[in-house]
User: Which sequence fits this backbone?
């Protein structure tokens, strides 16, 4: 018995170690990808979308609070890639770790469901997971820049806003996509593969066109988001939003298309407004559609069960022979008996 218990403990320890390393590796790779495109505000460099925050929140929701060391390790690897390990850098490490953990705790406190099948789950992820939880990482990170005299005090709010929106965008776009992929059935059904292929081709062409056109026609992407949300729910809409955000970020950093004649602050505002509204539209619309479909299925199931109960009751009231039993003839009334004498 002791040998079996020891083997089980060793197996659980090995699984935990693999999960922590996997989270750290995904965090580091996402951080390197996020750093490929960046903008400068008040002398500080930031990324319009910081995918590691989305990976961190999704990992906590899927694997549990125990994988927080993987988030800290991944953040440490990203920081060491950018600069040498100094005492002031530890503040950023703490902020990057505590922010997803607080977001996870707040989501669990309100009964968040990882299936995102209710509108309240989408709203909780937006206001608690993204906008609320990422206040910590932005405040700690920018605060450390001010304390170490790497940022002047008058530039605090501009850099803080850029940092906060970038971290929040990572949660709004990456976390729902990972949660939906984790809950999806594999292998996926290919009953609508023709529509999915056509939608993917149209989306790629439209996104490349509107993000590199001199005309300000970024709003043309929203009908595609509505189409993908109606037909493919969360997975389709978030994939569309992620692709559009990445392409728009590339166009903004290259100063092409609708971002060509804007200064740095205007580029940041326009890009973050576009990415934010697109992510909110995809997430909340998908949540509403999924909730309505689940409600309709529940009503249909209840109606089907009611029909079965009524059929059972009707069959129970019928005679066993399958044909109605003849009614016995009534006894002659006294006046009939008198008439027949």
Assistant:
């Amino acid at each position: 018995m002791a040998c079996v218990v020891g083997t089980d403990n060793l197996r659980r320890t090995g699984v935990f170690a693999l999960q922590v390393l996997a989270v750290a590796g995904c965090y580091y790779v996402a951080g390197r990808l996020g750093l490929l495109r960046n903008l400068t505000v008040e002398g500080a460099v930031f990324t319009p979308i910081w995918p590691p925050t989305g990976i961190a929140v999704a990992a906590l929701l899927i694997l549990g609070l125990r994988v927080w060391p993987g988030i800290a390790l991944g953040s440490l690897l990203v920081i060491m890639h950018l600069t040498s390990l100094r005492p002031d850098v530890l503040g950023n490490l703490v902020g990057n770790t505590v922010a997803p953990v607080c977001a996870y705790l707040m989501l669990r406190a309100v009964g968040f469901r990882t299936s995102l099948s209710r509108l309240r789950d989408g709203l909780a992820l937006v206001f608690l997971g993204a906008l609320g939880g990422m206040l910590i990482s932005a405040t700690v990170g920018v605060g450390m820049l001010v304390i170490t005299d790497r940022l002047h005090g008058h530039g605090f709010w501009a850099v803080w806003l850029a940092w906060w929106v970038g971290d929040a965008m990572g949660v709004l776009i990456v976390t729902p996509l990972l949660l939906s992929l984790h809950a999806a059935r594999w292998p996926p059904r290919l009953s609508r593969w023709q529509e999915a292929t056509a939608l993917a081709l149209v989306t790629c062409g439209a996104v490349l066109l509107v993000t590199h056109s001199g005309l300000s026609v970024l709003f043309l992407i929203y009908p595609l988001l509505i189409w993908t949300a109606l037909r493919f729910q969360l997975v389709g809409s978030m994939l569309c939003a992620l692709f559009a955000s990445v392409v728009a970020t590339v166009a903004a950093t290259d100063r092409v298309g609708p971002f060509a004649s804007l200064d740095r602050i205007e580029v940041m505002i326009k890009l973050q407004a576009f990415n934010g509204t697109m992510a909110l539209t995809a997430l909340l619309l998908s949540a509403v559609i999924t909730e309505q479909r689940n409600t309709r299925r529940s009503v249909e199931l209840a109606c089907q069960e009611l029909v079965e109960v009524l059929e059972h009751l009707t069959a129970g009231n019928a005679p066993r022979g399958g044909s109605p039993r003849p009614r016995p003839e009534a006894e002659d009334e006294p006046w009939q008996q008198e008439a027949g004498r």
